[in-house]
Amino acid sequence: MGAVGALLLFVSVLIHELAHSLLAKRNGLRVRQIVLFIFGGVSELEDDPGDSSVEFKVAVVGPLTSFAIAAILWVLWNSLILVRTDVVYLAVLQYGSFINLILGGFNLIPAFPMDGGRVFRSVIWRRRRDKYTATRIASRVGVGFAYVFIGFGLLIAFTGNFIGGIWLVFIGWFLRNGSESGLMQATISEALGKTRVGDVMTTSIHTVKPGSTLKEVIDDYLLVYKHGGYPVVLEGKFLGMITLDDVKRVRKEKWTETHTQDVMTPVEKIVSVGRGVHASEALVLMSKRSIGRLPVLENGNLVGIISRSDLMKIINLKTELMK
Ligand SMILES: [Zn+2]
Question: What is the mean pLDDT of residues 236-265?
Answer without folding.
Answer: 88
